[in-house]
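Archive record
______________

***
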Amino acid sequence: MILWSAVFLLSSTLFRPVEQLLSRTLAERDQARAGSSDALIAAAKIQVGLCAAAVVGLLIARAPIERELFSGEALLFWVLIVSLIGFGFAFYARGFLAGRRQFGLYATLLVIEVSTRLAFALVVAVGIADGANLIALGIATAPVAVAIVIPLAISRRPGSAEAAPAAAPSATPAELTLGSGGAFAGAVLVMMLSEQVLINSGALFVRTAEGAAAAGFIFNVMMIARAPLVLFQAIAASLLPHLTRLRARDDGSSRDAFHASVTSTLMLIVGFATAVTLGVAAIGPEVMQIAFGDKFEYDRLGLVIVAVGMGFYLVAASLNQAALAQGQAHRAATCWIACVVLFVAVNVAGVFEPDRAVEVGFTVSAVLLAALLGFLYLRPRADERDRVEPGSGREVQAALTASDEIL
């Protein structure tokens, strides 16, 4: 469990920015009927850099990681390394498939990844083999197994369901380089780190104030926010390239379709969040005890507060995809930073009990994030840092910034 948690948190934080970069850029190129080799190369360089930085950092901290996380098991440390490298490739593949609208292969990739991981666990569960090490090897093997999807993706033509057949290609996009791609990926990395603070750091605040048992309580409570985010990733995978294509066409019908897509997504989320909140208000404490045992007594009000925050957070995540499609990555990243500051402030202010501070802090931060990103969506104005001309002084500066972020 500790190994998988470490792999999941590190890979989803470090490597999703390149997935988003590829998804957005390839969709834009497809709409413009332009080549994509520069985008593929730049994204690969950024992903390799991030992966190398992560591996080097882990190797430097090997001794405390093995001792504190894995109880001295060296094999688990090396599984962590191999898994991160594999997921670096897997997230690159996800962005490639999403940007080319090959969502059938995207789903196949996820099925292969999950099935491979479960197959190793099943071998242990039925008694064919034993030992936690075999399950750990399954975690390392799963992201590598998705490589069989890539030849199929390359041999097939990109999907064609979204763009109107009669639509003229949009203007040819500027070349994607290490500097311009790194600037976008760096902004998204800020968002991913901010997400981890808002969703997962609450247990740390509570542990500091009240100990490990209380931290376990708030960890369980925040599952109401974490679990729907896993489902939202499937929506996000298709939403960003879809909105990017509509934005790239830049005509009256595409602008209407852009806003209609965002509106329909938000309505779906509002309906889902309302149903979850009503369910939590009715039977939330009982369900939490069934799911996590009767060690804790769950406060109905606290669960409802987190459920409301979850709804606003999913709204914000959808509006964030619209902001990325509109070329506002850096303005959006600033919104995330502001909300992280608010979350931390609520937790250190001492106005609430530690567990209530996490619940309230998450919800008010999610409300603010949704409001700020909603403003960006309604009044798009791309930040100059999101438009880097190849060969310019800004390109050189962005390249240096990207290198600093990677290293």
Observations:
- The radius of gyration is 22 Å.
- Confidence is low (pLDDT under 50) at residues 160-167, 387-407.
- The CA atoms of residues 114 and 162 lie 28 Å apart.
